[in-house]
Amino acid sequence: MTEPSEYPSEWLRGVLGPCVLQILADEATYGYAIIGALEAAGLGEIKGGTLYPLLTRFEKRGLVRTEWRAGEGGPGRKYFSLTPDGRAELAQSREQWKFFSDRVSALLAEPTEQTDIAKEQS
Amino acid sequence: MSDLKQWSATHKKWVDAFVIELRLEGVYGATIGDELTTVFSHCEETGEAPEQSFGAPKDYARSLGYSVPEQPGEYVSIVLPMLLQVFILFVFTYSMRAVANAHNFMLNGVVLGCWAGSLVVILAMIFGLRIRTLIEKPWTLILGFILAIGLGVSGAIASQKDLPLIVNVPAMPVAVGSGVLLLVATAWAVRSSYKTAKEDDDALVSPLDSGQEQERAKKSSTMVSVLPALLIPLYTVIDTLISFWMV
Asked: Domain named Transcription regulator PadR N-terminal: which ranges (chain A) (predicted)?
């Protein structure tokens, strides 16, 4: 039996985009900080190989803009910030997620007769 | 703290594979520089090696989604004048040797056959194969190269044999004519290479480099891309000098 905190990785893959847009909503930030924010939100450790292709796709779609800033005692950092299109995308994703998660939660909330039978059979 | 060059040297295998993959996907030098600097910056933050944070270099390069499918013969505008240079090189060096030895420009059927075969092999490599195939399966390049060189050498040997001649004309006009054509083909090749290098923005520059450093890298990249077009004239000059020296 898996712990509730463990879930199939494809679930996160499906909602990683909106989560990253949300992190960028308040202020421009860089990749490593985004990974830290996702981890702090309890979503586990995201690798650079997963995050940056997503950010590159966002940039191509005009959802984020990038800017290189000099680092403090380290190399420069690439900062990502939301464009107006990015904000619109985030608002739409939020709506879509609410619609979807409400339905999934409602469906999974109470055990039904069918699930009880399945439980007994197992 | 390390700089990008030092870091790239430390992780040479990963960096080379990443850059080559993006090059093969037709990505501009400035974009490759940006992506590589992003990896570098991230690894410096995490203290991880690139393969730990980004996985296999080829897979990561592909996941960035820049891929523009390469068409066979995409570099025709550069290769065609160089091909012309190769053909004229055959004629010019043979005619200069004839001038040096004070005899006619003579070709037998076997020499012409070898020249034609050599050109067919080069054309097949240019138009039939993608650059990716040549890099990932280097034996195709080596095989083609050996075939082309082998045919060229066979032609040179056949020219010494007493075989029925197909061409037998005074050498000087052929030498002058092919010399002029070689200059024209070289000018065309240099121009095409220079233009393509400028348009493709080929220099791999980092966004962390200063404006001056970026300009220097762009200039140097353009100059390097022009060099192959000058190799055949250079070989021609050396071959001609040797021909006259050996008389």
From this structure: 20-92
Q: ipTM of this predicted complex?
A: 0.83
Contacts of B63 in chain A (CB under 8 A): 49, 53
Contact B64 A56 (CB under 8 A): yes
- In Å, how far is B203's CA from the nearest CA of chain A? 19
User: Are B53 and B83 found together in one domain?
Assistant: no
**Which of A34, A68, A80 should one mutate to test binding to chain B, selecting the residue with the greatest count of B CBs within 10 A?**
A68
Check residues B119 and B44 and name the one with the higher pLDDT.
B44
pLDDT digits (tens, 9 = 90+) for B11-64: 999 999 999 899 888 888 889 999 999 999 999 999 999 999 999 999 999 999
Write the pLDDT tens digit of every residue in A3-43: 666 788 888 888 999 999 999 998 999 999 999 999 999 99
The total of other beta-carbon atoms located within 10 Å of residue B149's CB is 12
pLDDT tens across A90-105, in order?
999 999 999 999 999 9
Give me B12's structure tokens.
């040479």
Q: How far apart are CA B169 and CA B107, in angstroms?
A: 9
DSSP class per residue in A63-115: SEEEEEE--SSS--EEEEEE-HHHHHHHHHHHHHHHHHHHHHHHHHHS--HHH
Structure-token pair, residue B216: 């220097």
Phi, psi (deg, nearest 5) at residue A64: -130, 155
Reply yes or no on whether the pLDDT at B221 is more than 80: no
CB B238 within 8 A of CB B202: no
User: CB-based contact (8 Å) between A77 and chain B?
Assistant: yes
A76 to B37: CB separation less than 8 angstroms, yes or no: yes
Contact B30, A66 (CB under 8 A): no
pTM comes to: 0.69
**Domain of B10?**
4-63
* Domains of chain B: total: 2
In angstroms, the CA A101 to CA A79 distance is 31
Q: In CATH, which of 1.10.10.10, 2.40.50.100, 3.30.110.10, 1.20.140.10 is domain A9-121?
A: 1.10.10.10
Q: Which two tokens stand for residue A50?
A: 């997963």
Residue A31 in contact with partner chain B when CB distance is under 8 A: yes
